[in-house]
Amino acid sequence: MMHLAETLNFSGRKVVAAWASVPFPALHGYSLPDTLCAYQQDVPWKLLSSCREQKVSCCFAQSVVLRGIRKESHISCPGKQPTSPLHTCESTEQILQYYLHTMFPGAFSTSHVLEQPCNTLPPYPQFFSPLLTRQGFLLDRPPSYSPAAVDSIPVLAALQSSPVLHTLLYSLYKDLQKLNTGRWASFFSAGVEQDDFQEALQELRTLSQCYETGFEADESEEEADSD
């Protein structure tokens, strides 16, 4: 994980944010391009790290893995005219890569597609919606019968070097700056020097600035200052 984070970071950045979709909202009976075409305005995965999500998707670099999608799922309807550039891709790997380049233009993106899904057999908790099939694919409407337990699910996970980390790191810097270090004598008696603490604090602020992207960064700093 550490080496992957290092690969995704440059220009002084060191931290990555985690995203996931559990399960990935793949529609039963639809191809992967059909599913992704439904998410042209926003990506179908959510932020797991304790950052405030931005309205506009943006990242500097990312690594994305999609599991539980069969290789033939890129085929929508044989002989049918492609309805989008995603439908012209020749493999699931190309579909995901094209989608990432479309949603995150200019970002360095790596992607992998694995056929093996994530198993959800006992003792995995069955907290899934009745709209899921046993293989974890979404139905258009609830089934007329009692749904069976979900055996497996498709999952997408991503690590991103992203501007959302600016708010997190800058807020942490502001919180630490408010500390009255004179009340933590035991902390400094352990060997930490006041100068070292202040240096680390400034390094944290500098690190947060590495994730600035203009308006979003100014907005997040104003919010942190108001706190």
UniProtKB/TrEMBL annotation:
One Gene Ontology biological process: mitochondrion organization
InterPro entries the record matches: DML1/Misato (IPR049942)
GO cellular component: mitochondrion
Name of the featured protein: MSTO1 protein
